[in-house]
Amino acid sequence: MTPTYSPAVTEIFQRMNILRERDVVARMQPGAATASVTSPIDGAPLATLTLDSVERYEDVLARSVKAFDAWRRVPAPERGLLVRAIGEEVRKHKADLGRIVSLEVGKSISEGQGEVQETIDIADFALGLSRQLYGLTMPSERRNYRIQEQWHPLGPIGVISAFNFPNAVWAWNAMLAAVCGDSVVWKPSLLAPLTAIATNALAARVAAAAGHPDLFTIVMGPDDVIGERFIADKRLPLISATGSTRMGRRVGEVVGKRLGRSLLELGGNGAVIVDKSADLAVAIPSIVFGAAGTAGQRCTTTRRLIVHEEIVDGVCDRLVRAYKQLRIGNPLIEGNLVGPLINKRAVDGYLHAIGEAKKQGGTVLVGGEVVKPAGVDGGHYVQPCIIRAPASNVLDIAREETFAPILYVFTYKSVEQAIAMNNAVDQGLSSAIFSTDVRQTELFLSGVGSDCGIANVNAGTSGAEIGGAFGGEKDTGGGRESGSDSWKAYMRRQTNCIHYGSTVVLAQGIRFD
Ligand code: NAD
Questions:
Q1: In angstroms, rounded to a whole number, what is the distance separating the alpha carbons of residues 173 and 122?
Q2: pLDDT tens, position by position, 196-220
Q3: Is 452 a catalytic residue?
Q4: pTM of the model
């Protein structure tokens, strides 16, 4: 297939003035393999892209290694200035980048732009961080000795991103890695390569103007060829991988075998507990956004609702009423809140899970069908669905992450039981409790409460801010990205012992005279 960008994509790239950037041009070079990109909104072709040969992959990696060697010599605050300039460039093109996200993965305009805003936010965060890569000093047990820790750049960082956050996931990693003195090689999802091309083109242009043209690079190709080569590549001391638990297990295995580091951000199975003391005016909209927003295609999507048995009927009624008002359709049209699923496979997964839930005794309260919204030809649209678990309160299918808008409803009697249910799945990413009883909320946040990386009180499971460390436990992989001290993953720690006396003293009182 001849490589090409569709007129719609060309127009956006032209407005962003990136048509001549290396990342954009490279995908139009003749090559052995190509990938087609279509929009989940209506199936319209968006591009046919040339994928990387092994030779090109090798060239990119060699360039990234060289870029790292130059970049690590630049003082960290100066590195911060480059990240600030990237943030400014993204700010300028927020609307267009957001539109590519929407076209390519089907997010609403507001959510597409919200994702790009996260990139801007993390660039701001990283700028401040560039002056705060603090090490500790600690007292030595020996006279005239001093001990300190320093943080040094780690190397070229490999970033694998999932389709559903095609812009922000890279930024959470790349902006921190850059101030830490690392170069970045990005392997995006083939379901969302255009956002990656455009984003990297902007960042690489800014870096090239500062004399570092290979600081941000991309490799693109099938998982079994380029993906496997990438994770096995010893030149990448850290692989930060976002995606399914299945993918994370493979990355963990391959990277672990070569004793590299991996930072894994994998599947979730978010639960919300609703107590009878909850303020439902706060809880209901938070649950609806958490469960149906982004068409259920967030790692932090609310997939399980655990409601006090005395209020469950009322909560279900209110949710059903809210779900009936959700406008499903072309996400580019304002007012449509639920866009398409990414592809036919995702629709099959949605139908399969609903079928299984019914077989297991669940009752569909609302939704559950494939829909063809008016005015859209093609696309992969489904109705957000609520399924009530049977009286036994057991529904095995709810243990799996189905990447679609399905919310399973369970009941509980005591908050301890609700917390146990929250924790009784393999994944451990996001969780929430809606309650005005401080004893319950504090128990939920305590060491015997939620076992997830994110535990919210009177706020839904999805929609994290960049300031906190983001990630989850158990099958979610244990990685932390974004704010707080997540930057430490992108550096190597060095402990220094400095002696300024004239008598050698050994630690632990050892004599060796
Ligand atoms: P996926 O696992 O199919 O793909 C994710 C990425 O991994 C893609 O870039 C893919 O090409 C790559 N990949 C797959 N196999 C590989 C291999 N052997 N070697 C190298 N790369 C490989 O996931 P997806 O469908 O794109 O995304 C949805 C999943 O991602 C969901 O499970 C969701 O919960 C998860 N996710 C997690 C987070 C988080 O922060 N925890 C964020 C977003 C998405």
A1: 9
A2: 999 999 999 999 999 999 999 999 9
A3: no
A4: 0.98
Catalytic residue from among 118, 265, 401, 481:
265
> Whole-angstrom Cα distance, residue 110 to residue 362?
34
CB neighbour list of residue 60: distance below 8 Å, 6 or more residues apart: 52, 185, 214, 217, 218, 219
- Most distant pair of Cα atoms in the chain: their distance: 89
Q: For 455, phi and psi rounded to 5 degrees?
A: -135, 115
For a ligand 1 pocket test, name from 242, 246, 380 the mutation site with the most ligand atoms within 8 angstroms of its C-beta: 242
Q: Which of 299, 316, 385, 452 is catalytic?
A: 299
Q: Which domains does the chain have, with CATH numbers?
A: 4-266+477-493 (3.40.605.10), 270-470 (3.40.309.10)
In short, whether 231's Cβ falls inside 6 Å of ligand 1 is: yes
Tokens 């436990």 correspond to 473
Cβ neighbours, 10 Å, residue 478: 18
Residue 245 Cα, ligand 1 centroid: separation in angstroms? 8
Tell me the per-residue pLDDT of 265-297, one tens digit each, with 9 for 90 and over: 999 999 999 999 999 999 999 999 999 999 999
Contact assessment for residue 339 and residue 371, using Cβ atoms and an 8 Å cutoff: no
